[in-house]
Amino acid sequence: MLIAPVARRQLTELPRAQLERVDDRILALAEDPRPAGAKHLDRDLWRVRAGDFRIVYSIRDEEAAVVVVIIANRKVVYRLLRRMALL
């Protein structure tokens, strides 16, 4: 499990209640990177929900790794992805 610097910074800005929910969801991704409810986005990006927040990540099957790319509120996550040229 790897967390990109942008996602790490976003984690530190979350309220405690949201942080616990997001953290639990990220830890679950280490066990099952394609859980029920996961949505395949563009290229190699996937998205799971954690309340009002979305966790966008990449699966690297050849390395058996999950890379968390961005964590953001559902209202802004896709705008951030477009700004980062990931979508």
Please give a structural write-up:
- With 87 residues, the chain is an alpha+beta fold.
- The protein has helices at 5-12, 16-31, 77-83, and strands at residues 2-3, 39-40, 45-50, 53-60, 65-73.
- Strands 1-5-4-3-2 form a five-stranded mixed sheet.
- The two termini are 22 Å apart.
- 20% of the residues are buried.
Number of domains: 1
- Count the strands? 5
pLDDT under 50 segments (min length 5)? none
Give a quick account of the main beta sheet: strands, pairing sense, barrel closure. 5 strands, mixed
**Outline type:** globular
CA gyration radius, whole angstroms: 12 Å
Within CATH, the superfamily carries the name RelE-like
Q: Give the count of helical stretches.
A: 3
Set down the secondary structure blueprint.
Blueprint (H helix, E strand, L loop, with lengths): L1 E2 L1 H8 L3 H16 L7 E2 L4 E6 L2 E8 L4 E9 L3 H7 L4
Parallel strand pairs: 1-5
Antiparallel strand pairs: 2-3, 3-4, 4-5
Task: Write a concise synopsis of the structure shown.
The chain contains 3 helices and 5 strands. The chain is of the alpha+beta class.
Task: Offer a few descriptive terms.
alpha+beta, 87 residues, five-stranded mixed β-sheet, YaeB-like fold, 5 strands
